[in-house]
């Protein structure tokens, strides 16, 4: 009994850890897409840094949604891809806000000299990563509920 429970727990933790690592790798790739699109928007489209960032965010969020849909949460993706994409973009904005808030709070409390800003960025990134992964897993790519046998849909 204990061995079976340990095996089941190990699979659950291993599955979540594997998803988290894939989510992180997709996020790193998304960062590079974000930066590349930002610089392309600045140079080719001649937009300012704020409009360029808006464009690059949507492209990077779309990129990470697609690859998380295909690689990280392939067994959890929805048939309603458009709604899933919209939810993902909004959810990642929540993580981005948390990232910035953690960074700003750290700087406010510990100053802005030396390596402190880099530590703030790291803490903010970690907070955003954990929030985005959790929200993506629980809201955007939640496991489909099994159909009720013999029941009818409302």
List keywords for this structure.
globular; 154 residues; mainly alpha
The gist of it:
Helix content is 80%, strand content 0%.
Describe the overall structure:
This protein has helices at residues 2-45, 49-72, 81-110, 116-140. With 154 residues, the chain is mainly alpha-helical. The chain has one domain. The longest helix has 44 residues, at 2-45.
Write the layout of secondary structure elements.
Layout (H helix, E strand, L loop, with lengths): L1 H44 L3 H24 L8 H30 L5 H25 L14
Q: How many domain units?
A: 1
State the assembly state of the protein chains. single chain
Mean pLDDT across every amino acid position = 84
Shape, principal axes of CA atoms: globular
Q: Estimate the strand proportion.
A: under 5%
Taking the sheet with the most strands, its summary is: none
| Residue runs with pLDDT of under 50 for 5 or more positions | none
